[in-house]
Specification:
- By secondary structure, this protein is α+β, with helices and mostly antiparallel strands.
- It folds into 2 domains: about 80 residues, Immunoglobulins (Immunoglobulin-like); about 260 residues, Purple Acid Phosphatase, chain A, domain 2.
- The chain has 8 helices and 21 strands.
- Strands 1-21-20-19-9-10-11 form a 7-stranded mixed sheet, with no helix packed on it. A 7-stranded mixed sheet has the order 12-13-14-15-17-16-18. Strands 5-4-7-8 form a 4-stranded antiparallel sheet, with no helix packed on it.
- Helix 8 links the parallel strand 14 and strand 15.
- Helix 2 runs parallel beside helix 3.
- The longest helix is centred in the middle third of the chain and has 17 residues.
- The chain is globular, with a radius of gyration of 22 Å.
- It starts with a strand and ends with a strand.
Length: about 475
Amino acid sequence: MLNSLQLRRVPSLALLALAIGCANESASLSADADNPPAPDAVASDTASPRPDTSSPSGDVAPPELSPPPPDLVGPPETTGDAEEPLIEPVCEGIFTPREHVVRPDQTFRRGPYLQSVLDDSAVIVWHMGGPSPKAQGCVVYEVDHSTHEACTAADEHGQFVVRLTDLPPESPVDYRVRVMLSSEEGEPEPALLVAGPFRFESAAPHERPMRLLVFADAHANETSMRAISEAALAAGVHGAIGVGDLVNEPEEDQWDSFFEGLRALGHLVPFWPVIGNHERLHESYFRSFVVPGAAPPPHEPGLFYAARQGNVWFAALHLYEFHLSAIGGGYPTPQVAWLREQLTSPEARLARWRFLLIHEPPYAQGWGRCDHYRGEVSLRQVLVPLAAELGVHAIFSGHVHGFEQGERDDVLLVTTGGAGGNPDIPCDPFDGLPDPWLTIYEKHYTLVTAECDRLRIEAIALDGTPLAVVETDSTR
């Protein structure tokens, strides 16, 4: 249950009973995907309304979506009489901010940046900026006073992906990245490029308190992302989560801008992505990130996945199958069935805090134009009840360019879409919106501090001004 909630500013709005229920997007790639903000608005600090191109509907599934094919759904779920054994979460220690040593580095076009840092392994990615068929890339790293090296060749895009294995848990890892550009007879001597040294820490095996940066809707705004990265490192975060719309269009120059803003942070803590509608299911998104993917073929594995960081377990999700599940009367699509299985697993049940991450929100009050977008009905019908049933503490989303927060059935609902796009505007509340529902439409990021007995969620403006604080000691 929510213990305390403070806001710097909450607009005063009259409640309206609407004849039409909550609006929904027609599909996961709709909303503002066909009418994105103008390129100059992406990096601008001047707010302007964002057009809403989604299709109005009532509290029913979108009519233009046909019933899901049989191979996407299973039989209705049944429950037996046997009770599952009770799994109690465990938490150890007190929260301690991570100390980061920032070393500016511009050796490579992107990175190096950390991916999938677990208690025994990590992935390091960097990009040369173009095909490098003669390049050999290595990570030289020291852990427990022992030096190791892992090497690979660049892919056809000039990107290196190196996996470090057999790491001891909760241990500092000092690393450098180097690339040897080979030469042939008559060519200049081979060049050696070196980035680092940097330090990260392998994930804790036990339920250690964590602090995570959570943001959404960066829209390739390099200036905003640089400010957020610097603030997050100063706050001692252990990891970062981007809840969709990292770029405005999945083009190489926009990915360059996003990763440039993330550069200092990416050297030192793992970044966990969630796909948004502006990524458009493009292969550049899946190529850029290495996550413990769970999606079955024909999907890209990284479309949805789950991970554990200290005392936090989270699942990154994609919207479309929740639409299909809602149309099918709650039939479990592969992603919905997978999520239920994950939430009942020991990995999730032993975590002190459980989060779900999805770009589009189940409820939305603000939008670029106050005409009809009110969040995703299918998430209210499928995801929120599943979260309440299986002990999820919070659902984080973006899509709306602002901070919105409420609660439904003891599940915190947090929208934090203020990282880079122009802020949306407040619209009238509607019938069915959780009450109270708090809104602030400014550029911001969110710090989530997961202690053993308390979850603290702080929305902070890019200039460092506190906007909102939400705390809970839920024991679900």
